[in-house]
Amino acid sequence: MDVVKLGPLVLSVTVLLVLAAVLVANGVAAWYHRRRGVDAGPVLWKMIVAGFLTARAVFVLRHHDIFVSAPWKALDIRDGGFDGTAGLVVACVIAAELTRRHAALRRPLLAATLAGCAVWLGGTLLSQAFAPARVPLPDVMVRRLDGVEVPMQSFAGKPMVVNLWATWCPPCRREMPVLRAAQQAHPGIAFVFVNQGESAQTVARYLAAQGLHMANVVIDPAGQMGARTGSPGYPATLFYDARGVLQSRHVGELSEATLREKLAVLAKQARTGRF
Question: Which of 88, 148, 212, 239 is most buried by its number of CB atoms within 10 A?
Fold first, then answer.
C-alpha cells in the first residue's frame, strides 16, 4: 500500500506516516510535560524542523543542476524528495547539543523520539506488507493513435516506464514535458504513455496543441491498465524492470528530480542484473 484514497483525495502513505510520527512524538512530550513538569516540546520541534530542512536541502543539492535554473522548485515537495538519513543525523545532533546542559530533558525527549520512530517504522513495515505485489506487466491490448491495436507486452524487453494519464488531468499535463524530456534522454528505457478512457482524436488534438512529440503514445479506452494495476488515480507512473516485473509505483505528479532518482534505480538494476 503506497497511497490511501479518501474520497477524491489520494494521499501518500509516506506523508501520512510522517504526520502520524510527529503527532505521536509531540503527544508523548506533552504527556511528560503534564505529568513530570518537563517540557521537551520546544527541543523536539527544533529537531523536527532542522531534520526536515536538512533532508530537503541534501536532496536539492544532489540535483543542483535542476534546481539552479528554477530555484523555486526546491519549495515544491508534493512528490517527496528528501534524504532521510541526513535529516535523522542532524536531528540527533541537534538533540544532543540542546540537551547537553539540560539533563532533565533527555528522558522525555528520548521517549518522544523513540515513540515517533516506532510509529514510522511500524507503519512503513505494514505498508510494505500490503504494497502492490511485484507483478508482471498486465496482458492488456492498447491502441496507437492510428487505430492499430498492440499488446502492452510488445514494449517489454528493457526497463519500462508506463505513465497512466488523461488530458483533463492538470497534474498529468504538468508532468508531461518532464516525461517527454526523460524519454529523449534515456533511449535505453521504454516510456509508454497510456491515456485512460479518451479517444485517439482527443489525445492527438491535445498533443498537437501543446507541441508534444513523443513516442509510444497509446490509448486505453476502457482504462484496463489502471484497473489491472490497481492505480487509484491519475497520473500514475509504473516502473518495470527489463523482465517486465513491477518494481515501484508513483501516484501523483512527478518532479524532474524524483523521476531522475527512480530512473537511476532502473538503470542500475539493468546494469547489475539485480532485481
Answer: 239
The boundaries of every CATH 3.40.30.10 domain in the chain are: 141-272
What is the tens place of the pLDDT at every residue in 154-209? Answer: 998 889 999 999 999 999 999 999 999 999 999 989 999 999 999 999 999 999 99
Virtual torsion, Cα 244, 126, 45, 34, nearest 10 deg: 170
pLDDT tens for each residue of 100-130: 888 899 999 999 999 999 998 998 888 777 6
Q: For residue 108, which of 91, 125, 95, 123 has the smallest C-alpha distance?
A: 95
Do you know the residue count of the chain? 275
Beta bridge pairs of residue 3: 12
pTM tops 0.85: no
**Residue tagged 524542523 (cell numbers):** 49
Q: How many CB atoms lie within 10 A of CB 181?
A: 12
Q: How many helices, marked H, and strands, marked E, lie in the chain? A: 9, 9
Topology classification of domain 141-272: Glutaredoxin (3.40.30)
